[in-house]
Automatic annotation (TrEMBL):
Membrane topology: Peripheral membrane protein
Lineage, top ranks: Bacteria, Bacillati, Chloroflexota, Anaerolineae, Anaerolineales
Name the UniProt record assigns to this protein: Monosaccharide ABC transporter ATP-binding protein (CUT2 family)
Main location: membrane
Transmembrane segments: none
Taxonomic superkingdom: Bacteria
Molecular function GO terms recorded: ATP binding; ATP hydrolysis activity
Span of domain ABC transporter: 9-245, 246-499
Gene3D superfamilies in the record: P-loop containing nucleotide triphosphate hydrolases
Amino acid sequence: MENNGKPILQMENINKYFPGVHALRGVSFTVLPGEVHALVGENGAGKSTLIKILAGIHHPDSGQIIWNDQPVSFQTPFEAWNSGIATIHQELMVVPQLSVAENIFLGRLPRTSANLIDHKEMYRKAQDILDHLDINLDAHELVGNLPIAMQQMVEIAKALSFDTQLIVMDEPTSALSQHEIDILFDRIKRIREQGKSVIFITHKLDEVFYLADRVTVLRDGSSVGTQDIHELTKDKLVRMMVDRDIRVGTLHAQRKPGKKILEVQNITIDGLFYDISFDLHEGEILGLAGLVGSGRSDVVSALFGIRKIEEGQILVNGKRARFHGPQDAIAAHIGFVPENRKEEGLLMRMSVLENLVMPSTPATSRKGLLNSAVESRIADEFIEKLSIQTPSKWQFIGNLSGGNQQKVILARWLNISPKILIIDEPTRGIDVGARSEIHKLLRSYAEDGVGIIMISSEMEEVLSISDRIVVLRDGRVAASLNSDQATQETIVSYALGVTK
């Protein structure tokens, strides 16, 4: 790209604080007209927070945004869109029950002079936008009938219907096949040819080097720098992202792990992951590392019976296990703390007690009737044991802090005496003090003989408490590392496919 013009966007010294976290530390970067600008960094580097500020979802605590030479402060996403900045989030914001045209003009449907919806004009305008982008879609088609890639094209068409000058795409290829990725990349190039700009957030370095004109790297909430793509190599970019080797911390078990309690042998679910093999021992914490879309959460969902494997087998204590659902996994003494605790792990309108005893209800009942005295005693025991901060066991779980909610889920699975505990993103969204407590609890479980499989997007967390680390990339095992082999750089290199 040759562009000597002034920046269309400047984000200057952006700071953002959340409780216990300095998420962005004076971040600055610029976007030029007609460029694809990649924004990269490890999970937790601050990319999504920065983009949510630009999109009007979060507001900076200090710093300024200059858009087309004017200072701006977007109070809502709609203000950002109306100003010519459109953000396409990883989780698409389409309405499946509406047509393509209705999604494109949602919230601003064309009206007749009688203030009725002008369907004819809406479909005409929508089709013109689709045809201009060479998107082969009928504006009348229901969006729910479209594959993910085409739903993404609808979002792009919606963005351009606002006379957008800058489109932000957050991990747009994470759920796409290679053919769908090729279609998306072709449209991005067309957008650039029209003189519009794109901020492209991705973990995949191949995509960065294929699409981007310039790259900005974030690390630990700070901007490391911006460079022209032609000045970079993959190794140099990885080094900018991780800065240094960070070796495993002090929370590793000092004793040798016990017997093998779980064997995962060549399991496959087509389209999600392929030929996955690893094992787990008593008293061991096995970290599953990888980037967004690498297949980590899908693999552990299969281990808990949420997804049915198509090939391969799972052995628990040397015997083949066939999980037709989570109840089969629970019966095999496997516990699972999901990634999204509020949507998948907790019933937010129920009490601490009710959430804590949920999987063990049959064990705390007599002839089908709940034994409230037993449940109350169990809740009291775990509230004290795990130092759960709550005014009462009858308190709504939704009123607790994130760290205490996570402790309740852990207590729930401890209550069934698990032999294997799977935990996905154990400390996401909780403060530093609670993180330390969760880490100590996990190590305590391991010392009692529980085998733990832990997924974390935070590299330092994986390194600090894992005894072994399995790295996934594009749904396959990229590496299996002992703790003394593992550094931040080696893990990121395997996850990105950049190995020496």
